[in-house]
Amino acid sequence: MARDKRHIRGDSFAAVIRAFMSSPRFQSYSPATREVWGRELRLAEHPDALGPITVDVLRPSLVQAFIDGLAGRPGKQAAALAALRQVERWALVRDLITHPITLGVEHEH
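RESULT FIELD:
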């Protein structure tokens, strides 16, 4: 999926995802983890997903809708949620997001 940078604003969740994926923290993960989480984060940052949503508007219900969109694929849901939780943890302490975005979000088992 090609990234269309014209649709990505500095206060968008896509910008936060890109910053996380460029961070030393993300780079410290194993290659397999970077591959799996990177695939799910690129999907989340897409303009038709969570990417264009501004960080002040992003909330758990929107993340849940994204996870629900992966219905029938519990492994993909779990990987996406794990990756988004790491983005959340990393971004909260850097004031890139100001509130939890995955609180209460669930995936199929």
